[in-house]
Specification:
With about 180 residues, the chain is of the alpha/beta class. It is built from four helices and seven strands; from the N terminus they run αββααβββββα.
């Protein structure tokens, strides 16, 4: 009996470092995604729809414990953090009659503040009798599944420049008038 207790205690001592390493592998992200800097998106759907909160919630579900939400400033946290931004989107009421609805996000994975991976999925839908908010909800679910699969694969690369290059406009052309 005493021998089995010592074995159990020894096994627990061996397992402790593995358990703490597993806790360090959790990726923390914000409960809401934001628009990329300088992008207005579709303000009416940003106010009406809650898909910016649905996407992180779906991501937690699809990640099976790999991702957790935090209200803390993720830019100040150590460990692994995920920053998600809406790069482009299109939504409108009117179902299929108003054309496709789509969104592209950029997920950036950081380890102790250093960028270690980027992923930029795009999804669209065009169903006939679906409003703008329900279309975005469907898209957020698909984007969350894509992002969770990327995180589970663990194949991280930096693919995109931090900021899109500003458009440079040269001097006005001096073109003679047409006669």
């Amino acid at each position: 009996m005493i021998r089995s207790k010592w074995r159990l205690l020894f096994a627990l001592c061996l397992a402790m470092p593995a358990l703490s390493a597993m806790a360090d592998d959790v990726i923390r992200t914000s409960p809401r995604i934001a628009l990329r800097d300088g992008y207005a998106g579709y303000p009416e759907f940003m106010k009406q729809c809650d898909w910016t909160a649905e996407l992180p919630a779906h991501l937690v579900d699809y990640s099976h414990g790999l991702v957790e939400l935090t209200e803390q400033d993720i830019e100040a946290l150590s460990g692994r953090t995920l920053r998600i931004r809406i790069m482009n989107m299109r939504s409108a009421d009117g179902g299929g009659f108003s054309g496709p609805k789509w969104a592209m996000i950029r997920a950036e994975l950081f380890q102790d503040g250093k960028l270690i991976g980027q992923y930029q999925p795009y999804r669209q839908t065009m169903t006939l009798f679906r409003g703008g908010c329900s279309s975005l909800s469907k898209i957020s679910d698909a984007l969350a599944a894509d992002t969770a699969a990327w995180l589970r694969r663990g194949d991280f690369r930096i693919l995109f420049a931090d900021e899109q290059a500003a458009i440079e406009i040269g001097p006005e052309e001096d073109v003679p008038p047409i006669q």
